């Protein structure tokens, strides 16, 4: 038997490897990416040299679908892009249409909307307050956050009929009035959640490992906040003192100035972002109590306006924006006088927020990437729309 000669090539990777960049794809299915997001990283050893967020894997074409739905139907699409902030998403759409129509919403509906928006804000923040420590290795806080979420989910489900996609807003107000005894049950739920929020101070903020992984990590400069249109808790954790509820009040926020606190930090790191989120939960619970107090004083009355069978917005354009849990959420509505929008452009908070990662991640360690990514508190559907 004749043995065939085989050519063997040996590749040396000694000193040459030191000047070779490594390209690493995080996602689009990696568990650290909060959904179908892809990060394309160029590494220099253990440090990130370049970072590119690659979006679009979940794109569902919501803006185009808006053009084929009437003003009642688009609410169902609008509440789904940030599935943790469904009620707040609905608000922007109905406010835009009401502004086009020059429609006044009953006072009872205004206060109810404000209350439910703040409860929705707490639900959103609790998800991140539990899941962020989980990504850093702490499993216990997520169980506490889900227990508190269930308290509030129960009252939200009772009033609207939905657990995540409430579909409770209508052009001109709300779907229907409160069930009998709901205000008292909501007040008990708010009190129960407030009474247990100290758990996060003890379990998370009091944990030296958590503080070690987040203090001084992923510092977002105010200049980057302004350059990329970053908003919400991310911006306020970097010292950018801006909140639409105070600076351009809508709903009943103008009457809640004594209760509303705009929470800020100067450090701009992962720890500051978590602290802002936690403190905002406390303030949202206070706002919810203030709304419940005001609702108890209001006489019985309508919570919506009577609408024609076919609702048409007059020709023109308007922009309605709200302070959603994750940041600024805006709808630019263009109407040609038909029953469907000619154009409805969505400005989502997560899309702008995530763009700053391209500037923030370079120079940081790969080991800190998950901590930074998790502290950006985004929802992928809110990026891809």
From TrEMBL:
Source species: Streptomyces cacaoi
Pfam families, A to Z: Complex1_49kDa
Q: Major place of localization?
A: membrane
Topology of the protein relative to the lipid bilayer: Peripheral membrane protein
Q: What is its EC number?
A: 7.1.1.-
Q: Name one GO molecular function term.
A: NADH dehydrogenase (quinone) (non-electrogenic) activity
Q: What is this protein called?
A: NADH-quinone oxidoreductase subunit D
Record-linked SUPFAM superfamilies: HydB/Nqo4-like (SSF56762)
- Which positions fall inside the NADH-quinone oxidoreductase subunit D domain? 136-309, 311-385
Q: What does this protein do?
A: NDH-1 shuttles electrons from NADH, via FMN and iron-sulfur (Fe-S) centers, to quinones in the respiratory chain. The immediate electron acceptor for the enzyme in this species is believed to be a menaquinone. Couples the redox reaction to proton translocation (for every two electrons transferred, four hydrogen ions are translocated across the cytoplasmic membrane), and thus conserves the redox energy in a proton gradient.
- Similarity annotation: Belongs to the complex I 49 kDa subunit family.
PROSITE patterns in UniProt: COMPLEX1_49K
Source superkingdom: Bacteria
Q: Which reaction does it catalyse?
A: a quinone + NADH + 5 H(+)(in) = a quinol + NAD(+) + 4 H(+)(out)
Please give an example of a GO cellular component term from this record.
plasma membrane
Tell me which UniProt keywords the record has, alphabetically.
Answer: Cell membrane, Membrane, NAD, Quinone, Translocase, Transport
Q: Which PANTHER family match?
A: NADH DEHYDROGENASE [UBIQUINONE] IRON-SULFUR PROTEIN 2, MITOCHONDRIAL, NADH-UBIQUINONE OXIDOREDUCTASE 49 KDA SUBUNIT
Protein's cellular compartments: Cell membrane
Self-association and partners: NDH-1 is composed of 14 different subunits. Subunits NuoB, C, D, E, F, and G constitute the peripheral sector of the complex.
């Amino acid at each position: 038997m004749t043995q065939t000669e085989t050519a063997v090539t040996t590749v040396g990777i000694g000193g040459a490897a030191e000047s070779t960049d490594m390209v690493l794809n995080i996602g689009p299915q990696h568990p650290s990416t909060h959904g179908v997001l892809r990060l394309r990283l160029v590494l220099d050893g253990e440090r990130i040299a370049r970072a590119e967020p690659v979006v679009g894997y979940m794109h569902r074409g919501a803006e185009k679908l808006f053009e084929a739905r009437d003003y009642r139907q688009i609410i169902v699409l609008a509440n789904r892009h940030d599935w943790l902030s469904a009620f707040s998403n609905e608000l922007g759409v109905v406010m835009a249409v009401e502004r086009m129509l020059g429609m006044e919403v009953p006072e009872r509906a205004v206060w109810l909307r404000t209350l439910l928006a703040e409860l929705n804000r707490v639900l959103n923040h609790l998800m991140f307050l539990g899941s962020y420590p989980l990504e850093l290795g702490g499993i216990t806080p997520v169980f506490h956050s889900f227990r508190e979420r269930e308290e509030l989910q129960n009252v939200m489900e009772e009033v609207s009929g939905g657990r995540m996609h409430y579909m409770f807003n209508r052009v001109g107000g709300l779907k229907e009035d409160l069930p009998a005894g709901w205000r008292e049950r909501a007040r008990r739920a708010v009190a129960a959640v407030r009474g247990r929020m100290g758990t996060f101070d003890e379990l998370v903020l009091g944990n030296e490992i958590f503080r070690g992984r987040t203090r001084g990590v992923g510092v977002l400069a105010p200049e980057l906040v302004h350059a990329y249109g970053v908003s919400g808790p991310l911006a306020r954790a970097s010292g950018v003192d801006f909140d639409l509820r105070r600076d351009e009040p809508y709903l009943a926020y103008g009457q809640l100035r004594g209760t509303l606190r705009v929470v800020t930090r100067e450090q701009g790191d992962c720890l500051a972002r978590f602290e802002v989120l936690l403190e905002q939960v406390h303030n949202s619970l206070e706002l919810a109590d203030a709304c419940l107090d005001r609702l108890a004083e209001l006489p019985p009355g309508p919570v919506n306006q009577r609408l024609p069978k076919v609702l048409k917005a007059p020709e023109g354009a308007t922009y309605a924006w709200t302070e959603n849990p994750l940041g600024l959420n805006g709808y630019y509505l263009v109407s040609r006088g038909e029953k469907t929008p000619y154009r409805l452009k969505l400005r989502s908070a997560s899309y702008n927020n995530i763009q700053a990662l391209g500037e923030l991640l370079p120079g940081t360690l790969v080991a800190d990437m998950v901590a930074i990514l998790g502290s950006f508190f985004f929802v992928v559907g809110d990026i891809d729309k």
